[in-house]
Design goal:
The complex is a heterodimer. Chain A is an alpha/beta fold. Helices cover 36% and strands 26% of the residues of chain A. The chains are: A alpha/beta, B mainly alpha.
C-alpha cells in the first residue's frame, strides 16, 4: 500500500486552483522528489497534504485515510511529518525543548533523531533562534523525525543554505528512508542533487504534472527536465 | 560599551531595590507597615490579575488589559449570588422592544407588553457558599470560552493594535455592565464561611494579620509555584509556549494551537475569577472602578516577569501591593517626603508602577518579548484625503455644523455638539499617533489635562489674555509628549500601550489629583472671554438672523470649538498629504524598511508624539475654556481609554474617522439622539462603546470611516459597471479615484439620492 496517494488533486487559495489534476504516490522506504519552477504549486501540494490548506477537488490519502475535512494536527498525529519551507521552529525554546515536543513516545525517538544529526547534540541548551541556517534545518528535520513519522515531507530544504550543506543533508534523507522505512516527499530546487538521492521524481509546471519518472532516467535525460521547466508545450511524451 | 553600561545599571538597580526591600523589612516601624494583612491582600489581588495576564499572554499572545475587570466581574457574580441568590446577566438587546416602541409611538394608548429578556436568574433568597462558588466558576469558564472563541481567536493574525483595542473594549464593557446593574457604589461582600469568625494570627517579627489575609497570600504563592511547574515541566506547558510562538510549527507536530489557546484562556479567567472572589471576600467590598484600576500594577508586575516568569510576576505584584501602606506611612511620618502645597505629594504609590515600568523597559528594552514578528495582519487603511473633500466636503460639514449650532439646535443638542467637537479634537490626536504611526498611546487625556490645568492657572493667576493660553498649554503638552515618546523609541506595540497607560494613571493621581492643582471640589476656575463663555443666556443677530434661543449654553461656545476643529482637521489632513505624512505611514508599516528607505524612524515617532500631544493639549485647553473650570474626572485614565475607543470606532487612520469618532463620544451627538429620542440611558455609552469596540476590532478594524468608504466604493462600482463595461475608461473621473479612496466625499456620494 502506498503511504501517500494523491488522486486528481485540485487545490489552491480562495477557491482559485493553483494545482490541477495532480496524481502522485509515495511508497514505503522511497524518496520522491517533487520538482518544478517557482509558482508551480509544489509547496501548495505539501500544505494541502498536511491539511493546512483545503482540497478543492480530488483526494489525498495519507496512510490510507483521506485528509479531506480533517484538522491538520490530527493528520500530523497519525504519522505525517512536515518540515515547512519556513522551518517553523520555536525560536524561544531550546533545541532540546523543540525536539521534546515531537517526541511523544519518550527519549528513544529523540536519540534516533540525534543519531541522524549528531551536530545537534552539543547545541541542546541553545535557543533555536540562535542557531545558524544549517543548524536550524537540521533541527527542523530532527524535530520531524522525533515524531517517528511514516511519511516525511521536506519543503525546500536548501532554502538559504550553501550548496555544500545541502550536499551533506540530502544523503541523510536517503539513510532515513532506508533505515526507518519511511516514505519521503522532497521539494527541492537543486534538481541534480535531489535526483541523486531520490528514487522517483515528479515535475510540476503551472500547477499540472509535466513529467514523472525514474530519478536516474530523468538525471540522465536532462533535456526532458529542461523542456518541462521551460514550458509544457515543447514537451516530448515521456516513456 | 553600551552593553556593559546596561549591565552595570541593572546591577545598580537590582542591588538598590534589594537594599530598599531589606530596609523596609529590617526596620521594625517600616516592617510593621510593609508586611500588613491589607498590604498582602492588595499584593495577592494584583498577583492574581497579573498571573492571569501572563497565562493568556503565553497561551495566545494577547496582553489582556481587561483581566482586572474579569476579576471584578466574577467577584460580583459570586457576591450577588451569596447576597440575593440572583445570577445577573449582561444586557442583551431585545428585538421585541423595538416592535413595542413602534406600536406605542403609533398608538400611544396601546397596552402592548411583549416579554422582556430577563436581567437576572433568581435562585431564591440567598445562596450557600459552595453552589455560589460553583456557579461563579462556571461563569468564569464561560467568560474564558467567549473571550477565546468570539474575540481573540478571530484576532489571531491581527496586528497587536486590534488585540489591544479588543481588550480595552472589554475593560470598558464589563464595569459598564456592573454599573448598569448595581450602580457605582461599593457592594459589600461577606467573608468566606471558613474564615468566620475573623481570627487574628500572630506571626514572628511582630506581624499580625487576619487568617483569611494570610490564607489568600499562601494560596497565591502556592498557585505561582504550581503554574511554574505546569509550564516548565508538562507537555501542555511546553506546547503552549511553542504554539504561542509558531502556530504552524505546533500544528505539524500534532498540537492544536486553538485548543491550547482556549485552554489557557479558561485557566486564566478561572484563576483570576476565583482569586478575585477570594480577594473580594477578604477586602469585604467590591466596586466597579477601584478594582479595574488594579490592572496597572498587575501589568507592571507582568512586565517585570517579562510576561513569562510566574515567580517574578508574583514577587513584583506582592511588593507593589504592599508598598501602598508603607508609602502612606512615610507620607505621614517623614519630613523628607516630597511635599506639594501643605500636604504630602499625592499619588506616589501610583508613580511607583510607572517608575518600575520605565526602568524595566529602559534596562531590558528589546529583550522583552515581542510577538507578531511573523504574522501581522493588515493595518487599518489610511486614505489620502482627496482634493475635493478638502475643497468642498470639509467646508460643507463645517457650515452644516455652524448652521445647526447657531440656528437649529436647542440647548441639549448645542451641548452635544460642543462635546462632539471636543471629542473630534482628541480623536484627531489619536489618529496622528496611532493611526498614522501605529504607536498606541493611551495617555491622550493626560496630555489634554496638563494643558487644561495650565490654562486654568494662566488665566486666573497670571491674567494671560485669551488665545495665548491655548498655545502655551498645547506647547507644554507637546513637550511632555516628546518626553513620553522617548520610551517609544525602545518599545513598540503593546508594551508602549502599557507605558502610556501607566503614565496616564500616574499623572491622573499625582498631578490632577493634587489639591494645589485641581482647585479642590469645584475644580480649577478658568477666566473665559465673555463672547464664548458657556453659561450665558444670549442671542446674537447675525446678518438679520437670530442665533441662539436665549438659553444656556451660549451658541458661541460651540462655534469657538468648531473653529478650532476646522483648523486642526485641515492641519491633520495636510499632514497626511505631505511627504512627512508618507514617512509617518512608512514608519507604521515597517520600521526597518522605512529606515532603509531613508526615513528617520526615531524622528518620525517623536514628531508624531509631539503633534499628537499638541493636538490633545489644544483639546484640553478648548475644554477648559468651554466649561469655565477644569476638573480631574474629565482627564482621568479611563477617559483616555474611552476616547481611544471612540477614535478607533470612528476610524483610527483618517480625519473623517475622527469626525465620526467625535460624533460617538460620551455626551456627543449620537448618544444624545439615542437618549433624547429613544430613551437610552447614559450608562449605555460605555456598554455600547465597549461592545462596539470589541466588535469593530474583530469585524471591521477600519471603523465607521472604513465602512463608509467600502460602501461608497461598492456603490460606485455597481453604478460604473453598466455604462462602462470596458472598466477603467480614462473618461470617467470617478474610476481613477477608486484606489485613492476618498473619505468625506464618500458620505456625500452615499447620502445623495440615487
Amino acid at each position: 500500500m502506498a503511504l501517500l496517494e494523491i488522486e486528481d488533486l485540485s487545490t489552491g487559495y480562495n477557491g482559485v486552483p493553483v494545482v490541477r489534476g495532480l496524481n502522485l504516490t509515495v511508497n514505503e522506504g522511497e524518496i520522491v522528489a517533487l520538482l518544478g519552477p517557482n509558482g508551480a504549486g509544489k509547496t501548495t501540494t505539501l500544505l494541502t497534504t498536511s491539511a493546512l490548506n483545503p482540497i478543492l477537488d480530488g483526494d489525498i490519502r495519507v496512510l490510507g485515510k483521506s485528509v479531506k475535512g480533517r484538522r491538520a494536527h490530527m493528520v500530523a498525529r497519525e504519522g505525517l511529518a512536515h518540515v515547512p519551507e519556513d522551518r517553523s521552529l520555536f525560536f524561544q525554546l531550546t533545541v532540546k525543548e523543540n525536539l521534546k515536543l515531537g517526541a511523544a513516545k519518550g527519549s528513544a525517538n529523540l536519540d534516533q533523531a540525534l543519531g541522524y544529526f549528531p551536530a545537534l547534540d552539543r547545541l541542546m541548551d541553545r535557543k533555536a533562534g540562535l542557531l545558524s541556517g544549517g543548524e536550524q534545518q537540521m533541527l527542523a528535520m530532527g524535530r520531524a523525525l522525533t515524531t517517528n513519522p511514516k511519511l516525511l515531507m521536506v519543503d525546500e530544504m536548501s532554502l538559504g543554505l550553501a550548496p555544500i550543506i545541502v550536499e551533506r543533508l540530502l544523503p541523510v534523507l536517503r539513510r532515513i528512508a532506508d533505515e526507518t522505512g519511511a516514505g519521503v516527499l522532497l521539494v527541492e530546487q537543486h534538481v541534480h542533487l535531489a535526483l541523486e538521492v531520490a528514487d522517483r521524481a515528479y515535475v510540476l509546471s503551472h500547477g499540472s504534472l509535466a513529467l514523472e519518472g525514474d530519478a536516474k532516467h530523468l538525471a540522465a535525460n536532462r533535456h526532458l527536465l529542461e523542456s518541462s521547466y521551460l514550458g509544457g508545450a515543447e514537451l516530448e511524451p515521456s516513456d | 560599551m553600551k552593553g556593559s553600561l546596561t549591565k552595570y545599571l541593572q546591577w545598580f538597580f537590582g542591588v538598590g531595590s534589594l537594599v530598599l526591600l531589606l530596609w523596609a523589612l529590617v526596620d521594625s516601624n517600616t516592617r510593621a507597615k510593609f508586611l500588613t494583612g491589607p498590604g498582602l491582600t492588595n499584593g495577592a489581588l494584583i498577583a492574581a490579575i497579573a498571573l492571569g495576564v501572563v497565562i493568556t499572554y503565553r497561551g495566545s499572545g494577547v496582553v489582556n488589559f481587561a483581566n482586572s475587570a474579569i476579576a471584578m466581574y466574577v467577584a460580583y457574580v459570586y457576591a450577588v449570588l451569596r447576597k440575593d441568590g440572583d445570577l445577573f446577566l449582561p444586557p442583551i438587546p431585545n428585538p421585541l422592544a423595538l416592535i413595542e416602541g413602534v406600536v406605542h409611538k403609533l398608538s400611544p394608548s396601546s397596552t402592548l407588553d411583549l416579554p422582556d429578556i430577563p436581567t437576572r436568574i433568581s435562585f431564591g433568597p440567598n445562596m450557600q457558599f459552595w453552589p455560589a462558588l460553583l456557579i461563579s466558576a462556571c461563569v468564569a469558564v464561560l467568560l474564558g470560552l467567549v473571550l477565546h472563541f468570539l474575540i481573540f481567536r478571530p484576532l489571531r493574525a491581527a496586528p497587536p493594535l486590534a488585540k489591544v483595542v479588543a481588550s480595552i473594549g472589554l475593560f470598558l464593557y464589563l464595569p459598564a455592565v456592573i454599573v448598569r446593574r448595581f450602580g457605582i457604589q461599593p457592594f459589600t461582600v461577606e467573608a468566606l464561611p471558613m474564615f468566620k469568625p475573623a481570627k487574628r494570627i500572630n506571626l514572628p517579627l511582630g506581624i499580625s494579620m487576619n487568617s483569611d489575609e494570610l490564607a489568600l497570600t499562601i494560596v497565591v504563592i502556592v498557585l505561582t509555584v504550581l503554574l511554574y511547574a505546569v509550564f516548565q515541566l508538562t507537555r501542555f506547558g511546553l506546547a503552549t509556549r511553542a504554539a504561542s510562538e509558531n502556530e504552524k510549527g505546533a500544528v505539524v507536530l500534532g498540537f492544536s494551537p486553538d485548543f491550547l489557546a482556549g485552554a489557557n484562556w479558561v485557566i486564566s479567567t478561572l484563576l483570576t475569577g476565583l482569586l478575585g472572589i477570594f480577594a473580594a471576600t477578604v477586602l469585604r467590598t467590591i466596586d466597579p472602578s477601584v478594582l479595574p484600576a488594579f490592572i496597572i500594577p498587575a501589568l507592571t508586575a507582568a512586565l517585570v516577569g517579562s510576561f513569562t516568569s510566574f515567580g517574578w510576576t508574583t514577587f513584583a505584584a506582592m511588593v507593589l501591593g504592599m508598598q501602598f501602606g508603607l508609602v502612606k506611612y512615610l507620607e505621614a511620618q517623614h519630613h523628607w517626603y516630597p511635599k506639594s502645597g501643605n500636604g504630602p505629594f499625592p499619588g506616589m504609590e501610583r508613580m511607583l508602577p510607572l517608575i518600575i515600568i520605565v526602568l524595566v523597559l529602559f534596562l531590558r528594552g528589546k529583550s522583552l518579548p515581542t510577538r507578531g514578528s511573523i504574522s501581522s495582519g493588515r493595518l487599518p487603511f489610511s486614505p489620502t484625503p482627496p482634493r475635493w473633500a478638502i475643497r468642498y466636503g470639509g467646508p460643507a460639514l463645517a457650515l452644516t455644523a455652524a448652521i445647526c449650532g447657531l440656528f437649529i439646535f436647542g440647548p441639549t443638542f448645542r451641548l452635544a455638539l460642543a462635546n462632539s467637537l471636543i471629542g473630534i479634537i482628541i480623536c484627531l490626536s489619536v489618529v496622528v499617533i496611532t493611526g498614522y504611526v501605529g504607536q498606541i498611546s493611551l495617555a491622550q487625556m493626560a496630555f489634554a489635562g496638563i494643558s487644561a490645568f495650565l490654562v486654568a492657572k494662566m488665566t486666573t493667576e497670571h491674567n494671560v489674555p485669551f488665545p495665548i493660553p491655548i498655545l502655551i498649554g498645547a506647547v507644554v503638552a507637546m513637550l511632555v509628549g516628546v518626553l513620553v515618546a522617548l520610551p517609544a523609541l525602545r518599545v513598540r506595540g503593546v508594551n508602549l500601550a502599557i507605558v502610556t497607560l501607566a503614565f496616564a494613571v500616574a499623572i491622573d493621581k499625582s498631578v490632577f489629583g493634587n489639591s494645589s492643582v485641581n482647585g479642590g471640589f469645584k475644580g480649577a476656575a478658568v477666566k473665559v472671554p465673555k463672547l464664548i463663555a458657556q453659561p450665558r443666556d444670549v442671542q446674537y443677530n447675525i446678518l438679520g438672523f437670530i442665533a441662539g434661543d436665549g438659553k444656556q449654553p451660549n451658541p458661541m461656545t460651540a462655534m469657538f470649538c468648531l473653529v478650532v476643529v476646522v483648523i486642526l482637521c485641515y492641519a491633520v489632513a495636510n499632514l497626511r498629504r505631505s511627504a512627512t505624512g508618507r514617512r509617518l505611514l512608512a514608519t507604521r508599516s515597517n520600521e526597518r524598511a522605512a529606515a532603509a528607505a531613508g526615513v528617520n524612524v526615531s524622528g518620525m515617532k517623536i514628531l508624531a508624539f509631539a503633534v499628537s500631544a499638541f493636538i490633545a493639549g489644544v483639546g484640553g485647553a478648548v475644554s477648559a475654556y468651554r466649561f469655565g473650570s477644569v476638573t480631574p474626572d474629565k482627564f482621568s485614565y479611563v477617559q483616555s481609554l474611552t476616547f481611544f475607543a471612540f477614535a478607533y470606532l470612528g476610524g483610527i487612520a483618517s480625519v473623517f474617522g475622527s469626525i465620526s469618532g467625535g460624533f460617538l463620544v460620551a455626551g456627543g451627538l449620537v448618544f444624545t439622539v439615542l437618549s433624547e429620542k429613544f430613551g437610552v440611558p447614559s450608562e449605555y455609552t460605555l456598554i455600547l462603546g465597549g461592545l462596539g469596540l470589541i466588535i469593530a476590532s474583530v469585524r471591521n478594524p477600519e471603523g465607521i470611516a472604513g465602512a463608509v468608504r467600502h460602501l461608497g466604493l461598492s456603490l460606485r462600482r455597481r453604478r460604473a459597471a453598466p455604462d462602462d463595461s470596458a472598466g477603467d475608461a480614462p473618461g470617467n473621473p470617478h474610476v481613477g479615484q477608486h484606489d485613492s479612496a476618498p473619505t468625506i466625499s464618500d458620505v456625500q456620494e452615499v447620502g445623495a439620492p440615487s
